[in-house]
Structure formats: structure tokens, C-alpha cells
Design a protein that fits this description.
alpha/beta; 2 domains; Rossmann fold; 293 residues; 48% helix; seven-stranded mixed beta sheet; 12% strand
């Protein structure tokens, strides 16, 4: 074989190597769909993108439902709705809105635990607000697991000016032509009842050619939730009851007069009174008494 005849072989090998590198790069850019996870392996999951995957949560950070004070009506309503859903009956999407630190997200997680404790079955799936554009792909995964029930949970949901993520949320609430999967329900928490700041709503009214139509598209988003559960600032008695409940559950023995005085001083230095402030005081108290929480 002459040198001229042997020349093409290395060239073909180089081309094959280059094609292999291109194929590998394309795989990284557009990976194949992640397999549906083993939903029997965990009770809660977190949705991640890039690549899409449902990551199981071994232990959910939550408090017992009995420790959530001052929100009894919201507690009973959300628990009843979730039990109905977990048992295959009719139920509504829920928007938990209102004061900061009053237990909105804690209630969702505590209700989920209570439903499991009562023998009903449903999975908690958390999605971040910034990942809402991928919710259609997530619903596809959940739709295929028709033998499971899923509470899709989005914490601290709100939208700012020119934020188009709210359109993705409509896929969960309305479902379009295909409809929301029958085995999925959405629970969202927000500090705002209409999910967007009031000045944004007023700006839409003042600048749009048809003010009512411009506002309606955004404001009506919250109307698509069948349940509105309001959370309001707690009273001092409710604040103290929260702390007493935490102490009783942890077995902390503190003189009532001392507990009351220190708790009131703590909330005065914070300039706020809420369930979150009550928990922060309890953590500080437990630490000073040499107890883990």
C-alpha cells in the first residue's frame, strides 16, 4: 500500500472523534428526560431544573400541627381540604396569604404530616417561584404517576412589574386544553392577597389603554384559587401561647412570670410579634437552658 493510499484512514478517525465530541456536547445541552422517581421511597420531593429532576427529601423540616397557635380556622380548613384530596374526593387549590411569620408555610408542611399520620397518602412537591416556567414539564412527570396524589407547594409566591412567571402558574390553576392533572393540587403562600404589589396594580390602571382589562389579567390570578386563607398579626396572648406550647412540647420548665417577662422583652426588641418571633425566642431560651431543639 502506498503512502497516498494510507492517508485517508487517519482523517476518517479524526472525523469520527470530532463527531463523538459533538454528540456528547449535544447530550449535555439537551439531556434525555429524567426518569420518573420512585415515589414510594419518600413522602416529599423538591423539583430542580437543569437538568429536570425530582429530588427526594429524607426528612421535612416542620413542626407538629398542634403547636401552631392562633390560626385554628385556617388549620382546620386546610386540613379538611387536604384530606379530601388525599382520599380522592373534590378539593381546591389554596392560597395562604397575609402577615409575615404567622405560619403559612409551616401550616402546609404540618398538614401534610397530619394527613400521613391519619393513614391517607399524598406527596408534597416543592417548586421554587423562579422555576415556574418549567411547571408544565413537572406536571407531565406527576401526571404519569396516576396512582399517587401530589400537593404542589410554592412558598413565598409574588410577582413584580413585567414578571411573566404568573402566566406559567395558570397552567397549574387552569390547565389549558389538557387540564390540570386530577392527581395534583396547588398550595401557595404569599404576603400579598393579589400576588403583586398595590403600586403595580395602580400603575397598570393609570397607563393602560383599557385599565380594567390590564388589571384584570393579573389580579384575577388569585381568584383562581378556590381557597383563600388569611393570616393576620397575632395578639400578645396568642404570642405567649405559642411560646408556652413550644416549651411544653420540649419539656422546658420555666417560671411563668419569668417566661412572660422575657418573651415580651424579646418581641419588644424585635419590634414585631408573630409565630416566627415566638419560635426565635424559644430557640434562644432553649439554648440558654442547655437544650437542643
Amino acid at each position: 500500500m502506498s503512502a497516498d493510499d494510507a492517508a485517508p484512514f487517519p482523517a476518517r478517525a479524526d472525523q469520527a472523534e470530532a463527531l463523538a465530541r459533538i454528540a456528547a456536547a449535544l447530550e449535555r445541552m439537551t439531556p434525555p428526560p429524567a426518569p420518573v422517581p420512585d415515589f414510594a421511597g419518600a413522602d416529599a420531593f423538591i423539583w430542580h431544573v437543569g437538568p429536570d429532576r425530582l429530588e427526594p427529601v429524607a426528612q421535612v423540616a416542620r413542626v407538629d400541627l398542634s403547636l401552631l397557635q392562633g390560626i385554628e380556622r385556617a388549620r382546620d380548613t386546610l386540613l379538611a381540604n387536604t384530606l379530601q384530596f388525599a382520599r380522592g374526593f373534590g378539593a381546591n387549590n389554596a392560597l395562604l396569604w397575609g402577615a409575615r411569620g404567622m405560619g403559612k408555610s409551616s401550616l402546609v408542611k404540618a398538614v401534610h404530616a397530619e394527613v400521613l399520620a391519619r393513614g391517607a397518602s399524598c406527596k408534597l412537591v416543592e417548586i421554587q417561584r423562579e422555576d415556574l416556567p418549567s411547571v408544565g414539564r413537572l406536571l407531565g412527570h406527576l401526571r404519569r404517576a396516576a396512582d399517587q396524589r401530589f400537593v404542589l407547594f410554592c412558598d413565598d409566591l409574588s410577582f413584580s412589574h413585567d414578571d411573566q412567571h404568573y402566566k406559567s402558574l395558570k397552567a397549574v390553576l387552569d390547565g389549558g386544553i389538557e387540564g390540570r392533572p386530577a392527581n395534583v393540587i396547588l398550595y401557595a403562600t404569599s404576603n400579598r392577597r393579589h400576588l403583586m404589589p398595590r403600586d403595580m396594580i395602580e400603575n397598570e390602571r393609570s397607563t393602560a389603554i383599557s385599565p380594567s382589562e390590564a388589571v384584570e389579567e393579573k389580579v384575577s390570578l388569585s381568584d383562581r384559587f378556590g381557597l383563600w386563607l388569611g393570616f393576620h398579626p397575632c395578639t400578645q396572648d396568642e404570642y405567649l401561647a405559642m411560646i408556652e406550647g413550644y416549651c411544653a412540647a420540649a419539656g422546658l420548665e420555666v417560671a411563668p412570670e419569668r417566661l412572660r417577662a422575657e418573651a415580651i422583652e424579646w418581641q419588644a426588641t424585635r419590634g414585631a410579634r408573630s409565630g416566627r418571633v415566638a419560635w426565635q425566642f424559644f430557640c434562644d431560651l432553649a439554648g440558654r437552658l442547655g437544650r437542643a431543639v
